[in-house]
């Protein structure tokens, strides 16, 4: 699991609603210390008895009451092996102590979780290009942000190089830095004040013939997707959306 920005109770409830067994979780990785990514970190680690990975700087920068009891520290230049998964930290621009996103590899499948990015640096672009599925921030609509109710300093912070990706920035990243191996994108970390699902989707519309694009709501769990690497199989979409399988050729 990457990040725990809501309470453990909510996480477990939403997993259960989608038929996901929390006892199968093997580790929790924290991207940075902001509470919308760490709120449930301590209790999740304790309740499920799983390791909570973060950098030492993220730990030091976090609220004491959210810190896991037994953190596992990593540095952003190493890869971390958890059973059959390989986790690649991806350092990025964001106003936190040592923010990183993650690309997770399993059986030649790569899934990227990329949120809270002020500006997509070469490092982010390089890892995005390797992904078969992306959980990608599409935080704000430019017009809504600048005309909205946020105080000026906060508007500037959101739009800065260490803030968040706008719909247009997310579009550019997807348009220019992904290849044919990318099958689906979850637009995520969508601001409730400065964006709408409709605007985020409309921005990405020109890309809809290249990969599936869907919205990850902040209020409820998304459908569950299974990605499998199977030689010679084409993409299959069963009727039951909760069991949607995307199958890739071996590469
Ligand atoms: Zn955030
Ligand atoms: Zn943040």
How much of the residues is beta strand, in percent? 15-25%
Radius of gyration: 18 Å
By secondary-structure content and strand pairing, the structural class works out as: alpha/beta
Q: Separation of termini?
A: 25 Å
CA-based shape = globular
Q: Uncertain spans, ≥5 residues at pLDDT below 50?
A: 231-251
Helix content: 25-40%
Helix and strand run: HEHHEHEEEEEHEHHHEHEEE
- Average pLDDT, rounded to a whole number, is 91
Structure, explained:
By secondary structure, the chain is of the alpha/beta class. 27% of the residues lie in helices and 22% in strands. It has nine helices and twelve strands. The protein has helices spanning 8-17, 35-38, 41-48, 56-61, 122-128, 142-147, 152-159, 167-177, 197-204; strands at residues 28-29, 52-54, 71-73, 80-82, 85-91, 100-106, 109-114, 133-137, 184-188, 212-215, 225-229, 244-248. The radius of gyration is 18 Å and the shape is globular. The model is unreliable at 231-251 (pLDDT under 50). It binds zinc ion (2 copies). One zinc ion binds at residues 32, 34, 94, 96, 116.
Helix and strand layout, with pairings?
Blueprint lengths: L7 H10 L10 E2 L5 H4 L2 H8 L3 E3 L1 H6 L9 E3 L6 E3 L2 E7 L8 E7 L2 E6 L7 H7 L4 E5 L4 H6 L4 H8 L7 H11 L6 E5 L8 H8 L7 E4 L9 E5 L14 E5 L3
Parallel strand pairs: 1-2, 2-3, 7-8, 8-9, 9-10, 11-12
Antiparallel strand pairs: 4-5, 5-6, 6-7
The site of one zinc ion (ZN) has 6 residues, from α2.
Compact summary:
The chain has 251 residues and is α/β, with parallel strands linked by helices. The protein has helices spanning 8-17, 35-38, 41-48, 56-61, 122-128, 142-147, 152-159, 167-177, 197-204, and strands spanning 28-29, 52-54, 71-73, 80-82, 85-91, 100-106, 109-114, 133-137, 184-188, 212-215, 225-229, 244-248. Helix content is 27%, strand content 22%.
């Amino acid at each position: 699991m990457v990040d725990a920005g809501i309470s453990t109770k909510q996480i477990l409830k939403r997993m259960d609603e989608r038929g996901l067994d929390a006892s199968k979780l093997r580790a929790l990785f924290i991207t940075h210390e902001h509470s919308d990514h760490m709120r449930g970190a301590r209790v999740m680690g304790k309740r499920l008895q799983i390791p909570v990975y973060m950098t030492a700087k993220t730990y030091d920068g976090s609220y004491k009451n959210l810190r896991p009891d037994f953190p596992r520290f990593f540095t952003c230049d190493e890869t971390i092996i958890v059973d059959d998964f390989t986790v690649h930290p991806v350092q990025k621009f964001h106003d936190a102590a040592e923010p990183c996103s993650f690309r997770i590899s399993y059986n030649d499948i790569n899934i990227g979780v990329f949120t809270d990015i002020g500006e997509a640096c070469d490092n982010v672009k390089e890892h995005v290009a390797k992904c078969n599925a992306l959980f990608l921030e599409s935080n704000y609509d430019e017009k809504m942000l600048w005309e909205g109710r946020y105080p000026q300093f906060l508007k500037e912070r959101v739009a800065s190089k260490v803030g968040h990706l706008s719909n247009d920035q997310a579009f550019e990243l997807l348009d220019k830095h992904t290849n044919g191996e990318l099958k689906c994108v979850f637009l995520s970390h969508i601001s409730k004040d400065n964006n709408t699902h409709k605007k985020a989707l409309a921005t990405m519309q020109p890309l809809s013939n290249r990969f599936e694009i869907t919205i990850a709501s902040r209020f409820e769990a998304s459908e569950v997707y299974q990605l499998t690497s199977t030689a010679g199989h084409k993409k299959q979409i069963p009727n039951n959306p909760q069991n949607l399988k995307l199958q890739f050729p071996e590469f």
